[in-house]
Amino acid sequence: MENQITPLDPVAIQIGNFSIKWYGIIIALGVVVALLLALREATKRHFDKELFVDLLIWAIPISIICARIYYVIFQWDFYKENPSEIIKIWHGGIAIYGALIGAVGTAIIFSRIKKISFFQLADIAAPSLLIAQAIGRWGNFMNQEAHGAETTRSFLESLHLPDFIINQMYIDGVYYQPTFLYESLWNVLGFVVLLILRRTKIRRGELFLSYVIWYSFGRFFIEGMRTDSLMWGDFRVSQVLAVILIVVSVGIMIYRRLKLNPPYYLADKYGKVPKQK
Fold first, then answer.
1. Contacts of 91 (CB under 8 A, 6+ apart)
2. Which of 90, 105, 232, 258 gives 20 to 30 Å between its CA and that of 264?
């Protein structure tokens, strides 16, 4: 049976030597869905929707560059010997944490230039970020990457996964753990949690910080299952960063509550929270 399994074609459109891969299409879909959700929430919060469009114009290219730089830094042994490969992003090699660092950094600078609250901007975008990441992981699925350790077909079947996922996890004669799926599902669950949280009396900034904590917590454990982790000596970089982000986010949340008394997420311009219908 295994000999008859053919992986899904990662190329969606092929015209001569030009190809468009499913990975790029899926990432683009995630960005579009995230933007639409953010614009919808911005309208409810009476926040200028055009700011998100303007921010994306800068954030997307900067995030891609930062995702590449992050990957190259932790694969420097290879790239210092092959410097011409550094710019060849089409050969693979980007990291989501690098993209997030680039996006957050861009948003901080952008909010200062526009004289708006970074945390208000980030809170509105937080659920959108998680759903975009959930969608984006399916690009890894099409590329048969970001998987876990070897496993058996019987184990994958015990998870009640559809055949198309099980078959795609059959790579070079071996079945692998679908860690891309674990992370995608974790992000979908987090998306729902954030939607619930933002209807409560949560303070400004805490929705975004909750996103960082939620994603980092799940990523810490899922990263431990992966076989392609970027390493820092004997440590997995993403696990180290996940711990740092959780500690820093909790610290910021406590500090802001004790010292700054930020307004509620749902508060209007007068600081009042409307009653939920």
1. 85
2. 105
The Cα-based distances of 62 to 59, 123, 170, 269 in angstroms read 5, 20, 34, 32
SS3 127: helix
- Record the tokens describing residue 158, joined without a space: 């015990």
Residue 170's identity, in one-letter code, is Y
Q: At what angle do helices 118-143 and 50-73 cross, to 10 degrees?
A: 50
The residue behind tokens 């929430």 is 41
pLDDT at 275: 55
d(CA 140, CA 239): 19
Q: Percentage of the chain surpassing pLDDT 70?
A: 95
- Report the binding-site residues: 137
Length of the chain counted residue by residue: 277
Neighbours of 153 (CB within 10 A): 15
- What are phi and psi for residue 52, nearest 5 degrees? -70, -40
- Distance, in Å, from the CA atom of 27 to the CA atom of 69, rounded to the nearest integer, reads 19
pLDDT bucket at 88, cuts 50 / 70 / 90: confident
Distance in angstroms (rounded) separating the CA atoms of residues 138 and 142 = 6
For the chain, the average pLDDT equals 92
User: Rounded to whole angstroms, how far apart are CA atoms 223 and 237?
Assistant: 9
